[in-house]
Each structure stands twice: as structure tokens, then as C-alpha cells.
Amino acid sequence: MQKSMLSPRWINEIDLALCLRFNRVSHFRFWRLFFKIVSRLGNGVFWYTLMAVLPLAYGPAAWPTVARMAVAGLLGLAGYKWLKARTSRPRPYQVYSAIFAAAPALDRFSFPSGHTLHAVAFSLVAASAFPQLAPLVYPFTFLVAVSRPVLGLHYPSDVLAGALLGAAAAQVALLI
User: Fold this and answer.
1) What tens digit of pLDDT does each residue of 117-158 get?
2) 98-122 as b/e: b if 16+ CB within 10 A
3) What is the pLDDT of residues 66-88, one digit of tens each?
4) Is 70 exceeded by the pLDDT of residue 5?
5) Local confidence band at 1 (pLDDT 50, 70, 90 cut-offs)
6) For residues 36 and 147, what is the distance between their CA atoms, to the nearest angstrom?
7) Using alpha carbons only, what angle is made at residue 90 by residues 89 and 95, rounded to the nearest 5 degrees?
8) Residue 33 has what pLDDT?
9) What does the pLDDT read at residue 4?
10) Residues 90, 69: Cα–Cα separation, whole Å
């Protein structure tokens, strides 16, 4: 009997296989430390610093963008908290002993990735107003997203969902 490519079991198998593959990177000290730093910066430090620096660099013209970033962050936080409470998906390292938690989790559940959600939302809003920031914020956002399964804290589907929710939050904030 052939498995459907859209069956929940098949999707979970692919998700786990990718998670294991990403997580292997954390077994190398350099990469583990690198992605721990990226994750820590992606926890807000990078984005809040960017929001503080934008008005210094671009003057009063930056304030609407900072406000939109704040709106995107608040929308993302509300959606993230609501989904985490509803899905209660355990983190990969809590379910599979082969997955190594290379950094502490900020909360109990895995779905969606809040780091990725906020990185995507903030980078889209910032780069829409200041395209010259794209070469800085987009690669950093990519690294934040990759850091989550590398560190064993999220499945790739958590990261994908976080990215989609972050893009939606950014679009709403950009309409304001």
C-alpha cells in the first residue's frame, strides 16, 4: 500500500527526518555555539536594537516603520501564544532521544517557532521601508530560522508555520 504524500504520518516522518538532519549540525561545537548566538540575538536583541537604531540612522522618517514593527511583533506574539496553547506540540528533544537540545527552550511547546515568526515579520517590515537593510535582515532571518531545528528546539514544520505567520503579521502591519 502506497502512502499518500499528504497524510499526517508521512508529513511527520519527513518532519522528523529533517529535524534529525538539521540537529546533527549541533554536534559540532563551532556550529552549536554559532547557532546559539544567532538564536539569542533572534530572541529580540537584534530586532529591538534595530528598532532603536532606525530613528538614529534615518531620523523621524523611521518612526512609522518602528511603529509597524511593533505592531507586527504584537500581532505575532498574540498569534504565537494562541497557537502554542491550542496545539501543545512537544519540542523535538522532548519526544525523540536522538535529538539533542543544544540550547534552553524559552517555553514548553514547539508549534509555531516564535523566533522565526518575529524574524520574518520584523525583516519584512524593515526592508519594505528601507530596502538597503535587506542584505542584513534577510540572511539573519534565514539563520534564525535554521537555528531552531539545528538546536533541537523546533521541527521544520514549526519554522515554516512561524515564517508564514510572520509574513501575515508583517502584511497586516504594513497596511496600517
Assistant:
1) 999 999 999 999 999 999 999 999 999 999 999 999 999 999
2) ebbebbeeeeebbbbbbbbbbbbbb
3) 999 999 999 999 999 999 999 98
4) no
5) very low
6) 7
7) 135
8) 96
9) 58
10) 29
> Can you give the chain as a three-state secondary structure string?
CCCCCCCHHHHHHHHHHHHHHHHHHHHCHHHHHHHHHHHHHHHHHHHHHHHHHHHHHHHHHHHHHHHHHHHHHHHHHHHHHHHHHHHCCECHHHHCCCCCCCCCCCCCECCCCHHHHHHHHHHHHHHHHCHHHHHHHHHHHHHHHHHHHHCCCCCHHHHHHHHHHHHHHHHHHHHC
Sign of torsion, CA 171 53 117 29? positive
Query: Measuring CA to CA, which residue among 102, 103, 88, 55 is closest to residue 158?
Result: 88
Domains of the chain by range and CATH? 8-175 (1.10.606.20)
**Residue 122 near residue 116 (C-beta atoms within 8 A):** no
